[in-house]
Amino acid sequence: MSEPRLNETHDPAARSFVASANVPGTDFPLQNLPFGVFRPAGEAPRIGVAIGDRVLDLPAAIESGLLDLSPELAGACAALSLNALMGLGPEPRRALRRQLFARLRSDSALASDPALQARLLRPTFEIEMRLPVEIGDYSDFYASIEHAANVGSMFRPDSPLLPNYKWVPIGYHGRASSIVPSGTPIRRPSGQRKAPEAEAPTFGPSRQLDYELEVAAWIGRGNALGEPIDIEQAEDHLFGLSLLDDWSARDLQAWEYQPLGPFLGKSFATTLSPWIVTIEALAPFRVPAASRPEGDPAPLPYLDSQRNRNEGAFGIALEVHLQTRGMREQALPPLRVSRSDFRSLYWTFPQMITHHASNGCNLRPGDLLGSGTVSGKNPEQRGCLLERTWRGKEPLVLPSGETRAFLEAGDEVSFVGRCEREGFVSIGFGECRGVVEG
Amino acid sequence: MSEPRLNETHDPAARSFVASANVPGTDFPLQNLPFGVFRPAGEAPRIGVAIGDRVLDLPAAIESGLLDLSPELAGACAALSLNALMGLGPEPRRALRRQLFARLRSDSALASDPALQARLLRPTFEIEMRLPVEIGDYSDFYASIEHAANVGSMFRPDSPLLPNYKWVPIGYHGRASSIVPSGTPIRRPSGQRKAPEAEAPTFGPSRQLDYELEVAAWIGRGNALGEPIDIEQAEDHLFGLSLLDDWSARDLQAWEYQPLGPFLGKSFATTLSPWIVTIEALAPFRVPAASRPEGDPAPLPYLDSQRNRNEGAFGIALEVHLQTRGMREQALPPLRVSRSDFRSLYWTFPQMITHHASNGCNLRPGDLLGSGTVSGKNPEQRGCLLERTWRGKEPLVLPSGETRAFLEAGDEVSFVGRCEREGFVSIGFGECRGVVEG
């Protein structure tokens, strides 16, 4: 793996004057610097950068003269969402990162100016995180071959993995309006379901509510309608990553999904982690695309490049935690129910981006691409309850004595994403959680 | 059919001082008054109302004192898109319609003020029509049972009409970014396709480019996430209708669509007619929902109401016209290749709206719902070439001596939508056309 992208902002020796950013295990050390949009109580939303347990108020930092930015970049940072910053492409973002890194270091001028720090750095507990972006279109892929094969074997026992899977990065259009930031309560959807033996469907609350562990990619610079994106340039259109919970009502989905795909089984809610970890922060954690099993076809040329083979994937350790109301009442901590790695996917984000634009479809700054549920080969690597409990046949047994086939009222699902590599400071994705209401 | 919605704005005797609005057969008589967004050469976009071959500049009309509107309504009319006006719901829109109707009548003060007319009414040829709305989400349905059965029999000969069809208003999420206004050239998409007998897919330009004749519904007032829309209230969320061409690459679609539905076979372009005909203008053309054949199940209660049965559908005569480059070179006019009626659909827009929100999914002002291809029982009523030529097996023979299985370079496809009823002035939808490039 070549490492041209590593620079001083990945220096493991660098420390911040924000003490909490130097605590091992923090998601937001100086080397991360993810972007988000926050709202201080009673004020307008604004762009922030996470550092330890503080958030740098970016417009205030610019106003104070802390940063030296072009008028265009400064304007984008003063917006109510990240779309404008995303649309500027990689170079301005990298320039901004270098300055943020330098200003937040322990040896910076700001380090010895507590008054200015108090103005610019807000404690996380004082603020509310919002969706960071006005999401134009949300597309959800299906890039884990283990997930596709598991789900396929339940929905289509005779043809679990369809013939197109190893050729086409399968995806579908998702619903943008119902994407919510971490912490938003999730209402159980109603809908039609039909048992195989029933004569007619019935309408009522879903009985098979599920989570789906996904990683989401944010589009930075867009492409014009009609202009595909070469796989070699795909990464220039990638702004960063977040965690995503693609809540699913399996009973609704099973009855509705043919022939046009999932619709109301998905569109009732999708939870996003509110911080966007940039591609620059992820540079040390790039890994080769997962090698294809012997006998699998090579990707078609438009989806193949040396660069993608060498470093098209990201090594992100992922976990799913579940805490029921019963567990909370017994003061039992959340239980880790799944653990996998994002690097295992059959298709990389550069491949998904290139495929998405290969017909000329225009991707716009702030568009969102979900990876699809991340599942590995082993049962404990499965990223949703449908797979984890094999459609409810093998319920989870919880420390409270309860069991779970699917989600019940009061259940809290939270995801963890962490990047670790010898010789580098680990980074994380922050919170992605939701509690099921009703 | 009850007709509480008919009022003075449907008076067939009323005429406009704009002479072209009184010509029989015009799409835009005084009784229509559709909304759109136009851009005069070198100026900013603004909201307009079509009347004959003129467009009323709505912000200019407000500024001139012609209209007496609440500050909220006036503000919405001065915006760069219709979203704000849509979000206000039915009452303000109806008040606006009544005023527009009165001011554009032949007996109004404006009728005798040519100087003011010249300032407020722009000839259509001087302006460029834009997309009228910032479209948040676009959902496409599949509401013609003839279309579903025809396509199903080609893609799945063993199960043409799936068991859910008569219960679920089947739909899927579409791509919002690639929706373009009428007249935008359509680039032929590339993508993967695989012949049934081929070992592997290939990547290249689509060989089966098609149009799809659809009617599109615009959401007016939205619903909050988690709050379904009762079928009795569905219409309060409906702003108006346009025509929509859901261009499709059948070879890409056939290979990619399982299991998650159509994606790149659709997302390269979708053409919209730029004028939105309001629900108020369509009031005289409401018709009972198509009766279900003997033996078909009744809709589940959440999709059923007396009002929907009585007047949930709209009678709109639809036509598809095709003109090839060869026909233009021989000065041959466009050929009408299909003719059908929107009233024949298995599901109505109120049912689609209620179903869409039944899981709590939030619809936002300016969201777009496609009806799906409108096809009737007879071959000449089929709304796409896939059906019209039965997947290319029965090519159209054109007056130029050419044949067409699917679209070729230079082909222009245009749709016509007209509402006619004895005792009322006919209205139309304006232009919905695109030329295939390459």
Alpha-carbon Rg of chain A, integer: 22 Å
Mean pLDDT figure of chain A: 96
Query: Oligomeric form of this entry?
Result: homodimer
Shape of chain A: globular
Which chain pair shows the most residues in contact?
Answer: A-B, 64 and 64 residues
For the report, how would you describe the main beta sheet of chain A?
8 strands, mixed
Summarize the structure.
The structure is a homodimer of 438-residue chains. With 438 residues, the first copy, chain A, is α+β, with helices and mostly antiparallel strands. Helix content of chain A is 19%, strand content 25%.
List keywords for this structure.
homodimer; 438 residues; alpha+beta; 8-stranded mixed beta sheet; 6-stranded mixed beta sheet; 11 helices; 19% helix; globular
What would you say this structure looks like, in words?
Two copies of one chain form a homodimer. Chain A is built from eleven helices and 27 strands. With 438 residues, chain A is an alpha+beta fold. In chain A, the strands form seven sheets. In chain A, strands 6, 7, 8, 13, 14, 16, 17 and 22 form an eight-stranded mixed β-sheet that branches. In chain A, strands 9, 20, 21, 25, 26 and 27 form a six-stranded mixed β-sheet that branches. Chain A starts with 34 loop residues before the first strand and ends with a strand. The mean pLDDT of chain A is 96. Chains A and B meet through strand 7, strand 10 and helix 7 of A and strand 7, strand 10 and helix 7 of B.
